[in-house]
Design goal:
Distance between the termini: 27 Å
Structural class: alpha/beta
Order of helices and strands: EEEHEEEEHEH
CATH superfamily: Carbamoyl-phosphate synthase small subunit, N-terminal domain
Strand order of the largest sheet: 1-2-8-6-4-3
Strand content: 25-35%
Largest sheet: 6 strands, mixed
CATH class: Alpha Beta
Helix content: 10-25%
Number of domains: 1
Shape: globular
């Protein structure tokens, strides 16, 4: 069972979910992506530096993570907000799960959030 966490927005909205990745607190501007793929490229993309990235696609992480899909040498986001993180991944080139990738790069994440309602 994962730890419960909160997403707190400036307008006073509060969303409860399950924490993953690095335990802790992240702060920043909340931005969103409507892409169905490219989640690893997005979190390593310099255009998202210092932001919290919300994915509207309901399942993220299904093809895992690999070093060839990096847009920069490091993760640029402060945090990730998801509806659901895939419990399993399946890709011939995957080196690890997306959840483990975020943990190893010190990114705070929360899942189980109604991302489309926030968007």
């Amino acid at each position: 069972m994962k730890n419960r966490g909160l997403l707190l927005l400036e307008d006073g909205s509060i969303y409860e979910g399950e924490l993953f990745g690095k335990p802790g607190i992240a702060g920043g501007e909340l931005v969103f992506s409507i892409a169905m793929t490219g989640y690893q490229e997005a979190v390593t993309g310099p255009s998202y530096k210092g932001q919290i990235l919300l994915f509207t696609y309901p399942l993220i992480g299904n093809y895992g993570a690999c070093s060839s899909d990096l847009e920069s040498e490091k993760v640029q986001v402060e945090g990730v907000v998801l509806r659901e993180i895939a419990p399993y991944y399946s890709s011939w080139k995957a080196e690890e799960s997306f959840e483990n990738f975020l943990l190893c790069h010190g990114v705070v994440g929360i899942s189980g959030v109604d991302t489309r309602a926030i968007t």
